[in-house]
Amino acid sequence: MALSGLDIYKLLPKTNCKECGFPTCLAFAMQIAAKKVELSKCPYVSEEAKQALESASRPPIKLVTIGTGEAKLEIGNETVMFRHEQTFYHPAGIAVLVEDTEDASRIDERINKINKLHFERVGQQIGVNLIALRCSSGKKETFTELVKKIRLRSVTESLNLILMSEDAEIIKAAASLCKDRKPLLYAATKDNLDAMVAIAKENSLPLAIKAESLDELSELAQKAVSAGVEDLILDSGNKDISGKISDLTQIRRLALKKTYRPFGYPTIALSSAGETYQEITEAASYIAKYAGIVVIKGVEPWEVLPLLTLRQNIYTDPQKPLQVEPKIYEIGQVTDKSPVLVTTNFSLTYYTVEAEVEGSRVPCYIISSYAEGLSVLTAWAAEKFTAETITKSLNECGIKDKVSHKEIIIPGYVAVLSGKLEEESGWKVRVGPKEASGLPSFLKSLNK
Ligand code: SF4
User: Fold this and answer.
1) From the CA of 56, how far away is ligand 1's center (Å)?
2) What are the backbone dihedrals phi and psi of residue 234, each rounded to the nearest 5 degrees, phi first?
3) Is the residue at 322 inside a domain?
4) Torsion angle of alpha carbons 324, 327, 333, 336, nearest 10°?
5) CATH code: domain of residue 422
């Protein structure tokens, strides 16, 4: 929790000696609270005060990184319980399980499918983040063979790794094969804590702590931190869905509301459901509340895409709708005779229109008119998508240099704008369908 200027003042020497460059200790404290000056400017600050200030400036949930390079996964550093309070910053990682007891062809098939679990949605790339390699055989050789196989598959470089075994010897051998990829070690328990901590420390790797109760989890996390492991991921063990959500919520609440340091780390939740549809429901619940990583077994696009979509929606700033750049978009081989459509710059609206225009195979221009990222009807009701704003877009986007006609197609929902828009812009207005799904037949009918 951030300290106020007054809290910081109480920790200073209060001699007003001015050596820090400020007239009083209080003035200096106010500048520290505003993050405009470093504490080190005061040569007389005590060790105790330094520690208190350093601890107060730490985020309530630590940011933990798994992996390296562009594909690395950063989780944690969240500051609120509810998305409407501010926003959630670091999307939960989605991991797909591969077990070393599966036969080689099935492992290959799963890896091939996992590598394809990347999609484009409303202009953003979304996909799974990790492969969770589980040693279910209990054999070091079998598990390390699996790790080697994954290493050889260059395409999986875009996915981060979780090494799963509670046998420290097996984890040690596996980590030595891929420590450059900064995998997550899963998991330290009450039975293997010292050995797992030693491996994590020696290789500077993040470590998952697993316990069967929150009390035990807190105790193990404190021991790991005292032993020098800084990047922890917390697992409250095997529970039914409601028990797990309760644990995840309590961990988050204690970290944020009580600044309870042993729980100031991201969490991991493994799905336990046997049926696929149950797994999707379970994983969706964990993504919503408040897992940092969710491990699933499903590898089919229809299983994973709903989770990715949910995650994308939850981790979007509710105060900033997803927007596309307001400009002209050319779909297909456009000419100076191609139809011109206008819509708002709300991503979901724009990409829905774009998909339907592409599907129609009628080359078109789409003008995305700036409307603060609102959808068509909302923008119209808020007077952000009006005859005046559309005319401004027409005048400024350069469409007049691209087409030899002056006809614009507006969404059916704002047909009421037609007359005023014709007056304002001098363009002929044609009213399109209300729903984007009506565009293909509408566009094809223009050429008849
Ligand atoms: Fe106070 Fe330290 Fe600044 Fe002196 S140098 S005025 S003791 S804050």
Assistant:
1) 20
2) -105, 135
3) no
4) 160
5) 3.40.50.11600
Q: How far is the CA of 3 from the centre of ligand 1 (A)?
A: 18
Protein residue closest via CA to atom 2 of ligand 1: 42
Angle between helices 214-226 and 241-257 (to 10 degrees): 50
Q: Say yes or no: 180 and 295 in one domain.
A: yes
Q: What count of residues does the chain have? A: 448
| C-alpha 10 to ligand 1 mean position (Å) | 12
Separation of alpha carbons 395 and 424, rounded Å: 11
Q: What is the pLDDT of residues 155-206, one digit of tens each?
A: 567 899 999 999 999 999 999 999 999 999 999 999 999 999 999 999 999 9
State both tokens at 163. Answer: 């090494």
Domain around 382: 328-446
- Minimal CA–CA distance to 91: which of 132, 125, 133, 134? 125
The stretches in the chain having pLDDT less than 50 are: none
Residue 180 within any structural domain of the chain: yes
Which atom from ligand 1 is nearest to the alpha carbon of 18?
6
pLDDT tens sequence across 242-293? 999 999 999 999 999 888 999 999 999 999 887 888 999 999 999 999 999 9
Query: Could you give the number of structural domains in the chain?
Result: 3
